[in-house]
Amino acid sequence: MKRQAKRTADIKERIIEAFWRVAREHGSPVPVARLREAAGLPKAAFDTACIELAREGRVYMAPHDHAGRLSDAERDRLVADGSTFYCSFSLRGLSCWRRQPDGTWAPDQAA
């Protein structure tokens, strides 16, 4: 049980680290498909960890407003919890991002 908890914690940290890499390059929120690719995780492990992070209140994932209109392949790129499909991922408390002089993105400290 402890080994599984450690593995889950490691996956969550890997996702957060990948978020920072992608967000610095593209801003936030980050599309979940891009985040999964950056984290290099299989879909099932990624989805489970993202859903846990959201339930813990550490992140916000935006629900897709018309997932039913997407193809199966398009829906497969989203995070799914059984009833909702999520399309983007952001850390709670970092709502305002600004492009920096070097072209990267960073949270606005004044926000």
Explain this structure:
The protein has 111 residues and is an alpha+beta fold. It has helices spanning 2-26, 32-39, 43-55, 72-76; strands spanning 30-31, 59-63, 79-80, 85-91, 97-99, 105-107. Strands 1, 2, 3 and 4 form a 4-stranded antiparallel β-sheet that branches. It has a two-stranded antiparallel ribbon with strand order 5-6. The longest helix has 25 residues, at 2-26.
Structural key phrases:
111 residues, alpha+beta, four-stranded antiparallel β-sheet, two-stranded antiparallel ribbon, 4 helices, 6 strands, 20% strand
Radius of gyration: 14 Å
Contiguous low-pLDDT stretches (5 residues minimum) are none
How much helix, percentage-wise, in residues?
40-55%
Mean pLDDT: 88
Helical segment count: 4
Order of helices and strands: HEHHEHEEEE
Based on Cα principal axes, name the global outline.
Answer: globular
Question: Gap between N and C termini, in Å?
Answer: 41 Å
The fraction of residues in strands falls at 15-25%
| Structural class estimated from helices and strands | alpha+beta
How is the biggest beta sheet arranged? 4 strands, antiparallel
Number of E strands: 6
Count of discrete domains: 1
What is this structure's SSE topology?
Elements: H1 2-26, E1 30-31, H2 32-39, H3 43-55, E2 59-63, H4 72-76, E3 79-80, E4 85-91, E5 97-99, E6 105-107
Antiparallel strand pairs: 1-4, 2-4, 3-4, 5-6
Helix pairs in contact: 1-2, 1-3
